[in-house]
Design brief:
This protein has 172 residues and is mostly helical. It has helices at residues 9-12, 24-39, 45-53, 60-63, 81-96, 119-146, 165-169; strands spanning 67-71, 74-78, 99-102, 105-108. The longest helix has 28 residues, at 119-146.
Length: 172
């Protein structure tokens, strides 16, 4: 059974430009990969799976979409895991988005009006968007730290089950 997705193509489009002609179904592959291979390793398994099951509940309803918040009489913002996942997803789209499996093998589509971006440029863009995602994750981690959002039963992420989630999440 497939895991629930934490974002959609339309949400990613709020942050980045995505081709109109790319179907939601095809795009979900990149979301699924980014969620499983990029976002999940930043979090404890227990925290991650609890978030998938309770995305609309506290505290995930404040961690996923991002928000404006107060701490020590100062105003802060974090874009949320939705933005983090958007940038990870887009990085994957950049690297693999124009490679299609056909009965004759993998192909890259070309048109008379355009030329595909070269592999070196794709890699640069891929790493740039991953770096952006990690920077966005830092602001989410700061939010969790400032508001002392802990996941007490997260025994798979550290020596102590009461260790702050930020310490575990940023252990990458």
């Amino acid at each position: 059974m497939k895991q629930p997705l934490l974002t959609t193509k339309s949400k990613v489009e709020e942050y980045l430009q995505v081709a109109i002609g790319l179907s939601d179904r095809d795009f979900e592959r990149f979301i699924r990969e980014a969620q499983e291979f990029d976002l999940k390793p930043l979090l404890c398994d227990e925290f991650y799976f609890d978030m998938l099951e309770n995305a609309q509940g506290d505290p995930f309803d404040k961690i996923i979409p991002g928000l404006k918040y107060e701490h020590d009489n100062k105003t802060y913002y974090h874009e949320g895991l939705e933005a983090v996942l958007s940038y990870f997803t887009y990085a994957r789209l950049i690297l693999k988005g124009n490679v299609w499996s056909t009965s004759h093998g993998l192909v890259v589509k070309k048109t008379p009006q355009s030329e595909p971006v070269g592999q070196a440029e794709k890699k640069d863009l891929y790493y740039s968007h991953r770096q952006d995602a990690n920077k966005l994750f830092e602001s989410v981690a700061n939010y969790m730290e400032r508001l002392k959002i802990n996941y007490q039963d997260c025994s798979d992420c550290g020596e102590s089950p009461d260790q702050d989630i930020v310490v575990r999440a940023t252990g990458w």
